[in-house]
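User: My instructor asked us to take a sequence, write out its structure as tokens, and then describe one feature of it. I'm not sure where to start. Here is the sequence I was given:
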Amino acid sequence: MTFNQLDFATYCIGSLSERLGLNQTVVYDKLRDSEILPNYIVAAYDVLHTFSGDYIVDDLVDYMREKGVLE
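Assistant: Let's start with the prediction itself. The structure tokens for your sequence are:
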């Protein structure tokens, strides 16, 4: 993982935490355990980081729901 990917992952975790009203550790665990963190956020960094913050968070919330991570 590059520094930019790590920085982006941190941004995603913080933004999701704020949107969902969950602790950042809880969000990180959910993303890690569902493999969204390595297989989507980090893997698709080149594309994802070009979108707006709201779009990214909306997309991640939708994906977490699809994966059964969120109700």
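For the description part of your assignment, you could build on this observation: The CA atoms of residues 24 and 36 lie 15 Å apart. Try explaining in your own words what that tells you about the chain.
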